[in-house]
Amino acid sequence: MSIPFTLNGKPTVYEGSAMDRLSDILRRDFQCPGVKSGCNEGECGACSVILDGVLVNACMVAAGRAYGTEIVTIEGFRETAQFAVLDQAFGETGAVQCGFCTPGMILAAACILQKNPDPTETEIRDGLSGNMCRCTGYNAIVNAVALAAKEGRGLW
Amino acid sequence: MVNGYAPQTLKEALEIVRHKDVTPYGGGTDLMVAHGRSGQYLFLHRIPELQTISEDDTYLRLGAGCTFTQVAEHPATPAILKEAIGRIAAPAIRNLGTIGGNIGNGSAKADSVLVFFALDAKLRLANADGERIVSIQGFYKGRKELDLAPDELIVEVLLPRKMPEYYVYHKVGARAALAISRLSFAGLWTVEDGIITACATAFGAIEQTVVRLPEVDALLVGTPVADLERVGVEYLAAYDAALNPIDGRISAAYRKRVCMNLLAGFLAEMRGA
Protein backbone atom coordinates (compact mmCIF):
# COMPACT_ATOMS: atom_id res chain seq x y z
CA MET A 1 0.00 0.00 0.00
CA SER A 2 1.31 3.42 -0.89
CA ILE A 3 0.86 6.95 0.51
CA PRO A 4 -1.17 9.18 -1.82
CA PHE A 5 -0.99 12.97 -1.48
CA THR A 6 -1.10 16.07 -3.64
CA LEU A 7 2.14 17.94 -4.16
CA ASN A 8 2.03 21.42 -5.64
CA GLY A 9 -1.32 20.66 -7.24
CA LYS A 10 -0.35 17.28 -8.70
CA PRO A 11 -1.62 13.96 -7.28
CA THR A 12 1.29 11.73 -6.38
CA VAL A 13 2.20 8.70 -4.27
CA TYR A 14 5.08 7.78 -1.99
CA GLU A 15 6.02 4.10 -1.89
CA GLY A 16 8.59 4.20 0.93
CA SER A 17 8.32 3.91 4.72
CA ALA A 18 5.52 5.78 6.49
CA MET A 19 8.13 6.73 9.11
CA ASP A 20 10.37 8.66 6.71
CA ARG A 21 10.61 12.41 7.21
CA LEU A 22 8.55 14.45 4.78
CA SER A 23 11.41 16.96 4.46
CA ASP A 24 13.79 14.18 3.37
CA ILE A 25 11.45 12.65 0.83
CA LEU A 26 10.43 16.00 -0.65
CA ARG A 27 14.08 16.78 -1.28
CA ARG A 28 15.20 13.30 -2.35
CA ASP A 29 12.23 11.74 -4.14
CA PHE A 30 10.22 14.72 -5.28
CA GLN A 31 12.93 17.19 -6.37
CA CYS A 32 11.93 19.99 -4.01
CA PRO A 33 15.32 21.29 -2.79
CA GLY A 34 13.68 24.51 -1.59
CA VAL A 35 12.65 22.49 1.48
CA LYS A 36 15.78 23.03 3.58
CA SER A 37 16.76 20.62 6.35
CA GLY A 38 18.19 22.84 9.06
CA CYS A 39 17.68 21.29 12.47
CA ASN A 40 15.34 18.27 12.06
CA GLU A 41 13.84 19.23 15.44
CA GLY A 42 11.12 21.68 14.46
CA GLU A 43 13.09 24.65 15.74
CA CYS A 44 14.38 26.49 12.67
CA GLY A 45 11.51 26.54 10.18
CA ALA A 46 13.77 26.17 7.13
CA CYS A 47 11.76 23.11 6.02
CA SER A 48 8.39 24.91 6.25
CA VAL A 49 5.73 23.76 3.80
CA ILE A 50 1.99 24.36 3.61
CA LEU A 51 -0.02 21.25 4.50
CA ASP A 52 -3.79 21.42 4.00
CA GLY A 53 -3.59 25.21 4.06
CA VAL A 54 -1.48 25.67 7.20
CA LEU A 55 2.24 26.13 7.79
CA VAL A 56 4.06 23.07 9.16
CA ASN A 57 7.67 21.99 9.64
CA ALA A 58 8.20 19.19 7.11
CA CYS A 59 10.86 17.65 9.38
CA MET A 60 8.13 17.08 11.99
CA VAL A 61 5.91 15.20 9.56
CA ALA A 62 6.25 11.47 9.02
CA ALA A 63 5.36 10.38 5.49
CA GLY A 64 2.22 8.61 6.70
CA ARG A 65 0.91 11.88 8.13
CA ALA A 66 0.89 13.20 4.56
CA TYR A 67 -1.64 10.52 3.56
CA GLY A 68 -4.49 12.25 1.77
CA THR A 69 -3.16 15.78 2.30
CA GLU A 70 -2.35 18.66 -0.03
CA ILE A 71 1.19 19.96 0.25
CA VAL A 72 2.61 23.13 -1.25
CA THR A 73 6.35 23.82 -1.25
CA ILE A 74 8.16 26.92 -2.44
CA GLU A 75 8.50 25.21 -5.85
CA GLY A 76 4.71 25.28 -6.23
CA PHE A 77 4.09 28.56 -4.44
CA ARG A 78 6.50 30.44 -6.68
CA GLU A 79 4.01 30.12 -9.54
CA THR A 80 1.41 32.25 -7.73
CA ALA A 81 0.58 35.95 -7.84
CA GLN A 82 1.04 36.07 -4.06
CA PHE A 83 4.62 34.88 -4.48
CA ALA A 84 5.34 37.65 -6.97
CA VAL A 85 4.29 40.25 -4.38
CA LEU A 86 6.36 38.64 -1.62
CA ASP A 87 9.34 38.24 -3.94
CA GLN A 88 9.25 41.93 -4.78
CA ALA A 89 8.76 42.96 -1.12
CA PHE A 90 11.62 40.75 0.18
CA GLY A 91 13.89 42.24 -2.49
CA GLU A 92 12.96 45.83 -1.83
CA THR A 93 13.44 45.61 1.93
CA GLY A 94 16.69 43.64 1.84
CA ALA A 95 15.03 40.70 3.61
CA VAL A 96 17.24 38.10 1.92
CA GLN A 97 20.93 37.58 2.62
CA CYS A 98 22.28 34.03 2.48
CA GLY A 99 18.86 32.73 1.44
CA PHE A 100 18.78 29.49 3.45
CA CYS A 101 15.76 30.54 5.52
CA THR A 102 14.03 32.35 2.65
CA PRO A 103 11.75 29.58 1.29
CA GLY A 104 10.44 28.97 4.81
CA MET A 105 10.11 32.69 5.49
CA ILE A 106 8.16 33.25 2.26
CA LEU A 107 5.73 30.42 3.07
CA ALA A 108 5.37 31.63 6.68
CA ALA A 109 4.69 35.15 5.36
CA ALA A 110 2.09 33.77 2.94
CA CYS A 111 0.32 31.95 5.79
CA ILE A 112 0.31 35.09 7.96
CA LEU A 113 -1.31 37.13 5.17
CA GLN A 114 -3.71 34.36 4.16
CA LYS A 115 -5.09 34.33 7.66
CA ASN A 116 -4.86 38.05 8.27
CA PRO A 117 -4.38 40.35 5.24
CA ASP A 118 -3.67 43.36 7.46
CA PRO A 119 -1.46 42.12 10.31
CA THR A 120 0.07 44.26 13.04
CA GLU A 121 3.81 44.10 13.63
CA THR A 122 3.20 41.86 16.66
CA GLU A 123 1.09 39.49 14.56
CA ILE A 124 3.80 39.37 11.89
CA ARG A 125 6.47 38.62 14.50
CA ASP A 126 4.33 35.87 16.05
CA GLY A 127 3.71 34.38 12.61
CA LEU A 128 7.45 34.31 11.90
CA SER A 129 8.44 33.16 15.39
CA GLY A 130 9.18 29.59 14.28
CA ASN A 131 11.48 30.64 11.44
CA MET A 132 15.09 31.42 12.26
CA CYS A 133 17.26 33.79 10.26
CA ARG A 134 20.90 34.18 11.22
CA CYS A 135 21.63 37.02 8.76
CA THR A 136 19.06 39.78 8.74
CA GLY A 137 18.14 40.32 12.38
CA TYR A 138 14.48 39.89 11.36
CA ASN A 139 13.48 43.55 11.06
CA ALA A 140 13.92 43.54 7.28
CA ILE A 141 11.74 40.43 7.03
CA VAL A 142 9.02 41.97 9.21
CA ASN A 143 9.16 45.04 6.95
CA ALA A 144 8.89 42.79 3.89
CA VAL A 145 5.71 41.15 5.17
CA ALA A 146 4.19 44.53 6.02
CA LEU A 147 5.08 45.81 2.56
CA ALA A 148 3.62 42.70 0.89
CA ALA A 149 0.40 43.21 2.88
CA LYS A 150 0.18 46.74 1.47
CA GLU A 151 1.25 46.00 -2.10
CA GLY A 152 -0.80 42.80 -2.33
CA ARG A 153 -4.04 44.19 -0.94
CA GLY A 154 -6.96 42.18 -2.29
CA LEU A 155 -4.74 39.22 -3.17
CA TRP A 156 -4.83 37.37 0.16
CA MET B 1 1.60 1.43 3.77
CA VAL B 2 5.04 0.36 4.99
CA ASN B 3 5.59 0.83 8.76
CA GLY B 4 2.26 2.46 9.39
CA TYR B 5 -1.50 2.47 9.40
CA ALA B 6 -3.80 5.36 8.52
CA PRO B 7 -7.34 4.25 9.45
CA GLN B 8 -10.39 6.38 8.70
CA THR B 9 -12.53 5.40 11.68
CA LEU B 10 -11.96 5.09 15.41
CA LYS B 11 -13.31 1.54 15.32
CA GLU B 12 -10.64 0.53 12.81
CA ALA B 13 -7.93 2.28 14.85
CA LEU B 14 -8.99 0.45 18.02
CA GLU B 15 -8.80 -2.90 16.23
CA ILE B 16 -5.27 -2.03 15.09
CA VAL B 17 -4.04 -1.08 18.59
CA ARG B 18 -5.56 -4.29 19.93
CA HIS B 19 -3.72 -6.56 17.49
CA LYS B 20 -0.57 -4.71 16.42
CA ASP B 21 2.41 -3.20 18.19
CA VAL B 22 2.00 0.41 17.05
CA THR B 23 2.81 3.87 18.40
CA PRO B 24 -0.17 6.23 18.14
CA TYR B 25 0.87 9.26 16.08
CA GLY B 26 -1.00 12.47 16.94
CA GLY B 27 0.82 15.52 15.58
CA GLY B 28 4.22 13.83 15.56
CA THR B 29 6.05 16.87 16.90
CA ASP B 30 7.54 14.95 19.81
CA LEU B 31 7.83 11.58 18.08
CA MET B 32 9.76 13.02 15.15
CA VAL B 33 12.42 14.61 17.39
CA ALA B 34 13.37 11.18 18.76
CA HIS B 35 12.90 9.74 15.30
CA GLY B 36 13.86 6.11 14.83
CA ARG B 37 13.61 3.74 11.92
CA SER B 38 12.04 0.83 13.74
CA GLY B 39 8.47 0.28 14.84
CA GLN B 40 5.20 1.29 13.28
CA TYR B 41 3.06 4.40 13.58
CA LEU B 42 -0.71 4.53 13.83
CA PHE B 43 -1.62 7.79 12.08
CA LEU B 44 -4.77 9.32 13.53
CA HIS B 45 -5.27 12.41 11.34
CA ARG B 46 -7.84 10.83 9.03
CA ILE B 47 -10.30 9.96 11.82
CA PRO B 48 -13.07 12.60 11.97
CA GLU B 49 -14.27 11.39 15.42
CA LEU B 50 -10.98 12.53 16.91
CA GLN B 51 -11.09 16.03 15.39
CA THR B 52 -14.40 17.31 16.74
CA ILE B 53 -15.07 19.95 19.39
CA SER B 54 -18.52 19.95 20.97
CA GLU B 55 -20.33 21.12 24.09
CA ASP B 56 -22.93 19.55 26.30
CA ASP B 57 -24.39 20.77 29.60
CA THR B 58 -21.41 19.55 31.62
CA TYR B 59 -18.36 19.56 29.38
CA LEU B 60 -16.52 21.18 26.54
CA ARG B 61 -15.39 18.07 24.66
CA LEU B 62 -12.14 18.37 22.74
CA GLY B 63 -11.26 15.56 20.33
CA ALA B 64 -7.81 14.21 21.14
CA GLY B 65 -6.74 14.68 17.52
CA CYS B 66 -7.47 18.42 17.49
CA THR B 67 -4.39 20.50 16.86
CA PHE B 68 -3.39 23.28 19.23
CA THR B 69 -4.41 25.78 16.55
CA GLN B 70 -7.88 24.24 16.19
CA VAL B 71 -8.43 24.32 19.95
CA ALA B 72 -7.13 27.89 20.32
CA GLU B 73 -9.38 29.16 17.52
CA HIS B 74 -12.58 27.55 18.83
CA PRO B 75 -14.94 30.13 20.37
CA ALA B 76 -15.78 27.91 23.37
CA THR B 77 -12.15 27.39 24.41
CA PRO B 78 -11.39 28.96 27.83
CA ALA B 79 -9.10 32.00 27.76
CA ILE B 80 -6.46 30.36 29.96
CA LEU B 81 -6.11 27.48 27.50
CA LYS B 82 -5.87 29.88 24.56
CA GLU B 83 -3.14 31.82 26.35
CA ALA B 84 -1.17 28.67 27.20
CA ILE B 85 -1.43 27.40 23.63
CA GLY B 86 -0.23 30.79 22.36
CA ARG B 87 3.02 30.18 24.23
CA ILE B 88 3.59 26.68 22.82
CA ALA B 89 6.47 26.54 20.31
CA ALA B 90 5.51 28.46 17.15
CA PRO B 91 2.58 28.49 14.69
CA ALA B 92 3.91 25.69 12.44
CA ILE B 93 4.24 23.36 15.45
CA ARG B 94 0.84 24.40 16.85
CA ASN B 95 -0.63 23.51 13.44
CA LEU B 96 0.62 19.93 13.82
CA GLY B 97 0.74 19.14 17.54
CA THR B 98 -2.42 17.67 19.05
CA ILE B 99 -3.76 17.81 22.59
CA GLY B 100 -4.03 14.02 22.70
CA GLY B 101 -0.38 13.77 21.75
CA ASN B 102 0.61 16.33 24.37
CA ILE B 103 -1.14 14.18 27.00
CA GLY B 104 -0.01 10.80 25.68
CA ASN B 105 3.61 11.90 25.60
CA GLY B 106 3.53 11.76 29.41
CA SER B 107 5.69 14.81 30.13
CA ALA B 108 5.24 17.11 33.12
CA LYS B 109 6.35 19.95 30.84
CA ALA B 110 3.42 19.60 28.43
CA ASP B 111 1.93 23.09 28.39
CA SER B 112 -1.67 22.15 27.57
CA VAL B 113 -1.62 19.43 30.23
CA LEU B 114 -0.91 22.00 32.96
CA VAL B 115 -4.17 23.76 32.10
CA PHE B 116 -6.06 20.46 31.92
CA PHE B 117 -4.87 19.70 35.48
CA ALA B 118 -5.87 23.15 36.74
CA LEU B 119 -9.33 22.76 35.19
CA ASP B 120 -9.74 19.23 36.61
CA ALA B 121 -10.25 17.80 33.14
CA LYS B 122 -11.29 14.25 32.49
CA LEU B 123 -10.17 11.98 29.67
CA ARG B 124 -12.30 9.63 27.64
CA LEU B 125 -10.32 6.50 26.75
CA ALA B 126 -11.51 3.73 24.48
CA ASN B 127 -10.59 0.24 23.42
CA ALA B 128 -12.36 -2.12 21.02
CA ASP B 129 -14.68 -3.32 23.81
CA GLY B 130 -15.79 0.00 25.23
CA GLU B 131 -14.67 3.16 26.94
CA ARG B 132 -13.92 4.65 30.34
CA ILE B 133 -13.56 8.14 31.73
CA VAL B 134 -10.69 8.99 34.08
CA SER B 135 -9.53 12.16 35.83
CA ILE B 136 -6.37 13.65 34.39
CA GLN B 137 -4.78 13.55 37.86
CA GLY B 138 -5.38 9.79 38.07
CA PHE B 139 -4.21 9.26 34.50
CA TYR B 140 -0.66 10.43 35.25
CA LYS B 141 1.06 7.89 37.50
CA GLY B 142 4.59 9.19 36.97
CA ARG B 143 6.89 10.49 34.29
CA LYS B 144 5.92 8.64 31.08
CA GLU B 145 3.73 6.33 33.21
CA LEU B 146 0.12 6.58 32.19
CA ASP B 147 -3.09 4.79 33.08
CA LEU B 148 -3.45 3.74 29.45
CA ALA B 149 -3.49 0.10 28.36
CA PRO B 150 -1.66 -0.92 25.15
CA ASP B 151 -5.03 -1.50 23.44
CA GLU B 152 -6.47 1.90 24.42
CA LEU B 153 -6.48 5.30 22.73
CA ILE B 154 -7.14 8.75 24.19
CA VAL B 155 -10.34 9.88 22.48
CA GLU B 156 -11.46 13.10 24.16
CA VAL B 157 -10.51 15.69 26.74
CA LEU B 158 -13.52 16.74 28.82
CA LEU B 159 -13.27 20.25 30.30
CA PRO B 160 -15.91 21.06 32.93
CA ARG B 161 -17.90 24.05 31.69
CA LYS B 162 -18.24 25.33 35.24
CA MET B 163 -14.85 26.76 36.01
CA PRO B 164 -13.45 29.59 38.13
CA GLU B 165 -13.91 33.09 36.77
CA TYR B 166 -10.42 34.63 36.85
CA TYR B 167 -7.04 33.22 35.99
CA VAL B 168 -3.33 33.84 35.81
CA TYR B 169 -0.97 31.86 33.58
CA HIS B 170 2.82 32.02 33.54
CA LYS B 171 5.33 30.13 31.46
CA VAL B 172 8.98 30.57 32.38
CA GLY B 173 11.13 29.70 29.37
CA ALA B 174 14.50 30.68 27.94
CA ARG B 175 12.90 32.69 25.11
CA ALA B 176 9.50 33.79 23.88
CA ALA B 177 8.97 31.22 21.12
CA LEU B 178 10.10 27.60 20.74
CA ALA B 179 10.92 27.27 24.43
CA ILE B 180 10.45 24.25 26.65
CA SER B 181 8.93 25.29 29.97
CA ARG B 182 11.44 25.63 32.77
CA LEU B 183 8.42 26.01 34.94
CA SER B 184 4.80 26.87 34.36
CA PHE B 185 1.91 27.95 36.56
CA ALA B 186 -1.85 28.16 36.20
CA GLY B 187 -4.09 29.65 38.88
CA LEU B 188 -7.84 30.17 38.72
CA TRP B 189 -10.27 31.61 41.23
CA THR B 190 -13.74 32.99 41.77
CA VAL B 191 -14.75 35.87 44.06
CA GLU B 192 -18.37 36.24 45.11
CA ASP B 193 -19.46 39.05 47.43
CA GLY B 194 -15.86 39.63 48.50
CA ILE B 195 -15.23 35.97 49.34
CA ILE B 196 -13.03 33.46 47.49
CA THR B 197 -15.42 30.69 46.50
CA ALA B 198 -13.16 28.65 44.22
CA CYS B 199 -9.40 28.27 43.80
CA ALA B 200 -7.46 25.87 41.58
CA THR B 201 -3.71 25.99 40.95
CA ALA B 202 -1.19 23.77 39.19
CA PHE B 203 2.55 23.78 38.47
CA GLY B 204 4.17 22.22 35.42
CA ALA B 205 7.76 21.12 34.78
CA ILE B 206 8.83 20.94 38.43
CA GLU B 207 8.17 17.31 39.43
CA GLN B 208 7.62 14.04 37.53
CA THR B 209 4.03 15.00 36.73
CA VAL B 210 2.08 18.25 36.84
CA VAL B 211 1.49 19.20 40.49
CA ARG B 212 -2.09 19.87 41.55
CA LEU B 213 -2.86 20.18 45.26
CA PRO B 214 -6.59 20.70 45.81
CA GLU B 215 -6.22 20.30 49.57
CA VAL B 216 -3.86 23.29 49.69
CA ASP B 217 -6.11 25.39 47.43
CA ALA B 218 -9.00 24.53 49.77
CA LEU B 219 -7.29 26.69 52.44
CA LEU B 220 -8.28 29.78 50.46
CA VAL B 221 -11.87 28.79 49.74
CA GLY B 222 -14.24 30.70 52.01
CA THR B 223 -11.65 33.38 52.74
CA PRO B 224 -12.78 37.00 52.45
CA VAL B 225 -10.51 38.90 50.07
CA ALA B 226 -9.87 41.30 52.96
CA ASP B 227 -8.31 38.40 54.94
CA LEU B 228 -6.17 37.09 52.07
CA GLU B 229 -2.99 38.67 53.40
CA ARG B 230 -3.27 36.71 56.66
CA VAL B 231 -4.59 33.42 55.23
CA GLY B 232 -2.15 33.72 52.34
CA VAL B 233 0.76 33.20 54.77
CA GLU B 234 -0.71 29.86 55.77
CA TYR B 235 -1.33 28.99 52.09
CA LEU B 236 2.27 29.75 51.12
CA ALA B 237 3.58 27.71 54.06
CA ALA B 238 1.43 24.72 53.04
CA TYR B 239 2.65 24.98 49.46
CA ASP B 240 6.26 25.39 50.61
CA ALA B 241 5.99 22.17 52.60
CA ALA B 242 4.28 20.24 49.78
CA LEU B 243 6.42 21.16 46.76
CA ASN B 244 9.47 19.00 46.04
CA PRO B 245 10.91 20.16 42.72
CA ILE B 246 13.44 17.90 41.04
CA ASP B 247 16.92 18.80 39.83
CA GLY B 248 17.23 18.74 36.08
CA ARG B 249 18.47 21.18 33.50
CA ILE B 250 17.13 23.68 36.04
CA SER B 251 18.08 23.33 39.71
CA ALA B 252 15.51 22.31 42.31
CA ALA B 253 16.34 25.40 44.37
CA TYR B 254 15.65 27.73 41.44
CA ARG B 255 12.39 25.98 40.67
CA LYS B 256 11.24 26.18 44.27
CA ARG B 257 12.08 29.86 44.52
CA VAL B 258 10.22 30.71 41.31
CA CYS B 259 7.21 28.64 42.43
CA MET B 260 6.98 30.60 45.66
CA ASN B 261 7.37 33.91 43.81
CA LEU B 262 4.59 32.96 41.41
CA LEU B 263 2.31 32.00 44.30
CA ALA B 264 2.97 35.33 46.00
CA GLY B 265 2.09 37.04 42.72
CA PHE B 266 -1.04 34.92 42.44
CA LEU B 267 -2.18 36.02 45.91
CA ALA B 268 -1.49 39.64 44.99
CA GLU B 269 -3.67 39.25 41.88
CA MET B 270 -6.45 37.83 44.01
CA ARG B 271 -6.22 40.79 46.36
CA GLY B 272 -6.54 43.02 43.32
CA ALA B 273 -3.17 44.58 44.05
List the helices and strands and how they pair.
The complex is a heterodimer of chains A (156) and B (273).
Chain A: E1 3-7, E2 10-14, H1 22-28, E3 48-51, E4 54-57, E5 70-72, H2 74-77, H3 81-92, H4 102-115, H5 121-127, H6 139-151
Parallel strand pairs in A: 1-5
Antiparallel strand pairs in A: 1-2, 3-4, 3-5
Helix pairs in contact in A: 3-6
Chain B: E1 4-5, H1 10-19, E2 23-25, E3 41-43, E4 53-55, E5 59-63, H2 68-73, H3 79-86, H4 91-94, H5 99-104, H6 111-118, E6 122-127, E7 130-135, H7 136-139, E8 140-142, E9 145-146, E10 153-160, E11 166-172, E12 183-192, E13 195-204, H8 214-217, H9 228-242, H10 252-270
Parallel strand pairs in B: 1-3, 2-3
Antiparallel strand pairs in B: 4-5, 5-10, 6-7, 6-10, 8-9, 11-12, 12-13
Would you write up a description of this structure?
The complex is a heterodimer of chains A (156) and B (273). Chain A has 156 residues and is of the alpha+beta class. Chain A has 6 helices and 5 strands; from the N terminus they run E-E-H-E-E-E-H-H-H-H-H. Chain A has a 5-stranded mixed β-sheet. The longest helix of chain A has 14 residues, at 102-115. Chain A is globular. Chain B is of the alpha+beta class. Helices cover 31% and strands 25% of the residues of chain B. Chain B is built from 10 helices and 13 strands. In chain B, the strands form 4 sheets. A 5-stranded antiparallel β-sheet of chain B has the order 4-5-10-6-7. In chain B, strands 1-3-2 form a 3-stranded parallel β-sheet, covered by helices on one side. A 3-stranded antiparallel β-sheet of chain B has the order 11-12-13, sandwiched between helices. The N and C termini of chain B lie far apart (59 Å). In chain B, 44% of the residues are buried. The model of chain B has no long low-confidence stretch (mean pLDDT 96). The interface between A and B is medium-sized, with 36 and 33 residues.
